[in-house]
Each structure stands twice: as structure tokens, then as C-alpha cells.
Amino acid sequence: MQKNLEPCYYGDYLQLGKLLDAQHPVAPRYGQQAHDEMLFIIVHQAYELWFKQILHELRDVHATMAQPHINERELGTVIARLERIRSIQTVLVQQLTVLETMTPLDFLDFRDYLIPASGFQSIQFKEIEIRLGLRANNRINFDQQSFYSRLNEPDRNFLIGLEAQQNLHDHLDAWLARIPFISTAGFDFWQAYRQAVDRMLADEADIVRQHPNLLPHDRDFQLRELEKTKVSFDCLLDANRFDELKAQGKFNLSQRALLAAVFINLYRDEPILHLPFRLLTALVELDEGFTTWRYRHVMMVQRMIGAKIGTGGSSGSDYLRQTTENNRFFRDLSLLSTFLLPRSALPQLPESLRAALDFHANRG
Ligand code: HEM
């Protein structure tokens, strides 16, 4: 590493001249005093800085995950980047409490001057969504039709161009689908899994049937629910039924990728699967982090503007509440537990497969 040639000065390095000269409330231009507008601007700017950092991490994650082969060291770095984003998310959620020290009446002192600007136009937030895997046709109706119409042309073209590229969900799918060690010669893991599932469901049905305290109505209900669980497993394992459900939007990952994710979760104790399991966990947590932020944001919006429409023209808290449930990035991973079996019920792996899974721990 080279020595620095010129002395570094704190304010120059951080470009504080520019940064601290970027807060210009609009209310005074209209002869209105609105003390809290400064807070409103600074909180939003702080968010945009954190979005910038999230994108810095995400672009690096993309570059690694887009490769046809990813070694373990690189996987470790991807996980570290995702965990950093997760830490930032906790700050993002927490930061709303600062803005909530502004009362709805204080907000009304300047809100109307902001129309039609809105969080819709946070290009960095939309870039994060698109890079993670949210496509226009997966957005709720209002968002599909309207959010692009709220943007200027360069921003719109930038985001449309981004949507045409592969996103993190695509890279994850390709990486999972490449995982090689599920079938080895002479052993069909998924057939053994199917038998283990059938045994588990049959045992559970026996427990329900023989339970002395269940009323007939409750017993029938529970048996019907078990039948539904069986259908979920059938769909996971049957390529044609899986593809039908995928076409209806019930699954987002390919069948091969989802099976690999199930396998990683079932055998995560095996040394070679530790990192893949941590990667899947990090993605689930990231998804939860954004959902938590959306939820906290909608609670704050409700408190600030009640049932009014947003400055960007959406139905306001109603629209935002729908995005909370709808705009998930890795829903399939969040629902994986549906397909897990207790460790005691897992199929015994043949020695050759166990040795392959143990390879890294015992090497050298
Ligand atoms: C007084 C505080 C706030 C209010 C009343 C508010 C209100 C709203 C409303 C109503 C929308 C829906 C679009 C529209 O019709 O305008 C929205 C979207 C959004 N807001 Fe806020 N917001 C506030 C603070 C924040 C803060 C601090 C951020 C941080 C960056 C933020 C980021 C966003 C983003 C990214 C969207 C787009 C969400 C999406 O389309 O899924 N908002 N906001």
C-alpha cells in the first residue's frame, strides 16, 4: 500500500461542504415557517445514503453470484455483504422513530409543497427492489401501472434497463440448480425423501385418529389439513405439477433450485452445507428486513396522513399495506419449512454421499 502524499483534511475527505449545503426547505419560499421540514429532509437524505451503501454491497454480491462457479471464500464474502445490509436495515427501521417526533400537524405545515414528489421516486429504493428480484409484473396493480409514470424519462429508462438484466433471484436460482451432490450412483435421494415424508404423514394421521381428546369435528379438520400438506409435498416432487403452480405464481424458484434449497436445509449440519445454509438464511432475513421496514413505514404513514392519498397519488397507507405482503423477494425460501422433516425421520444417506458432504471438514 502506497503512503499518502498529501495530508488528508476531515471536511475535504467527507466533502462536507457539499453534503451540509444540500438541505433547502421549500416552505420559506412560500412565506411559511415549517421548523420540522429540516428534519424531514435530513431523515430522507440519511436514508438515501444508506440505500447507496446497500447498493454498493448488492452490486458486489451480484458480480460474484453471476459467475458460473463460486468458491467458498467468495460465498463467505457474499454472506458478509448480505449480513451488513441486514444491519443497515435495523438502522433504517429504527430511524423512523426520529421522524415520528414530528407531529401530523407539523407535517401539514409543508406537506402540500411537496406534491407530486414522493418515495415512489426514490430511484435507489426501486433499484434495490429490482436488483433483489422484484419484476414489474409481480408488483401490485397500482404499482405496475403507475410508479413508472411518476418518473422522469432518464430514471424510467434506467430502471426499465435494469429490469431486463438478471437479478439476484435469478442468480440464486442458477446457483442452487447447479448444486451437484443430491443424486449419486445407485441412490435416489428424492425417492428416499418421499418415503420418509409418507411415513411421517402416516404417523401424524395415526396420532390424530387415536387422540382421545379430539372431537370428531376437530379430528376431521386436522386430517383434511394433513391431506393438504401431502398435496404440497406432491407438488414439490412432481415436475409437471410444480411447473403448473409456478406458472400461477405459487412458486418463484425453479423446481430443481427449490429441491436443492430443501436439501441444504435438511442436511445443514453437514460441513459442506454450512455456508450454503447461511446464504439462504441471510436472504430470508434480508427479505424479512425489507418487509419489516415496509410495515413500519405504513404504520408511520397512517399516523401522519390517516386515510388521505399520498403526495405521489397512490391510495396512501392502503397501497403501502398491500406492498408489505406482496413485494417479497425470496418467498419460496421463507416457506421452506413446509418441506422439512424432523432429523430423526431423515433418510439415511449412503456412505459415499456422506463422505462427499464431509469432504471439506476432513480434508488435509
Ligand atoms: C412523514 C413521513 C412519510 C410519509 C407521510 C410517507 C408517505 C408515503 C406514501 C403515501 C407513499 C405511497 C406513494 C405515494 O402515493 O406518495 C410512500 C412511498 C414511499 N416512501 Fe414514504 N412517507 C414518509 C417517509 C418516508 C421516509 C423517511 C422514507 C425513506 C426513504 C420513505 C420512503 C418511501 C418509499 C421508498 C416509498 C415507495 C414505496 C413503494 O412503492 O413500495 N418514506 N410514502
What does this structure look like?
The chain has 17 helices and no strands. The model has no long low-confidence stretch (mean pLDDT 92). The chain has 364 residues and is mainly α. It has one domain (24-362): Methane Monooxygenase Hydroxylase, Chain G, domain 1 (Up-down Bundle). Helix 3 packs parallel to helix 6. The radius of gyration is 25 Å and the shape is globular. The structure holds protoporphyrin IX containing FE (HEM). Protoporphyrin IX containing FE binds at residues 43-44, 47, 99, 107, 118-120, 122, 125, 143, 147, 297, 300-301, 304-305, 310-314, 316, 319-320, 323. Protoporphyrin IX containing FE binds next to helix 3, helix 14 and helix 15.
